[in-house]
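Appendix C reproduces, verbatim, an entry submitted by the partner laboratory led by Prof. M.T., so that reviewers can inspect both the input and the predicted structure.
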Amino acid sequence: MKLVLSTLFIILFSSVAVYSCECPEFQSLRALDEASFEWSEAIVIGKLKKIGSLNQILISEALLGDVKGEELIQLAQPDSSICPFFPNQEGVYLFYLKSVNIEKKIYYWASSCLGTRMLNHENFPVSLRSNKAKNALIKETEEWVSALRKKRNENGN
C-alpha cells in the first residue's frame, strides 16, 4: 500500500511540475513592458473576437513587427516552458506576440508571463506586482503605447 501511494504521489507531483507555470514578478509596469518588448517579434493593438485556445485578433495597429492583414489567429505556444496566454474576456488588448510556423503558415502566440493586457485594465498581467490604481496603470499603458509609436515612426514603419 505504501508503494502504491508513493508511486501515485510521484506521478502526481511530476505531472504538476511539468505543467506548472512560474512567471517572474515585475514591480513596475514599465519593467514588464520593456521585458515583453525584448521578447516579442510583434506588438499589436487589437480586438479579441473569440475566446478559447484559438483566438481571432482584429488588428487596429501594429506597433512592432511585420504583421500583415487585419486578422491573426493566436495559438497556444509550441514551447511548454513558457506559459500560454488564454484571454478570458473579449475586448481591446495590447498583445506581445511571437510567431510560429505551422505547415508553412505563420501563426502568433503570447505568454501569460508577459505584458499582454486589456487596454482598459479590466484584467492585467499576472507578472505585475504593483499597488498602483487602475487609472495610473491605464495612463502608463497609454504612455508606453505612445513611446512604441514614436519608435516605430523613427524606424520608418
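Confidence is low (pLDDT under 50) at residues 3-19. Additional entries are available on request from the coordinating office.
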